[in-house]
Amino acid sequence: MSRSLYKGPYVDERLLKKIAGKKPGEGGAIKTWARASVISPEMVGFTFGVHNGKEHVSVLVAEEMVGHRLGEFSPTKKFHRHGGKMQKELEQKKKDAEVAAAKAAKTAATNKK
Q: Between 20 and 30 A from 38 (CA), which of 2, 71, 78, 95?
């Protein structure tokens, strides 16, 4: 749910203090746990280390990210894959196609010599 218009966007004050006086791109990532903080125009060009619950994920802030929250760019869940027999068959077909392409490229390279 969004904030009321009269309150304005939530920007963590500690983040603004950390970027004050710095130039974008200088130094390393600015570590933060403030996932709810809204990206403001002053943050463009900086790299933030946004905590996802386990580690800090590097997020380089671009112009298009203004208005979004920092947590949107640091996923907290890792997708492994869907399982099952059908998935294994698809992966095997893909692997076989890669092997066939590699063999074809190798034979084409030896025929040119």
A: 78
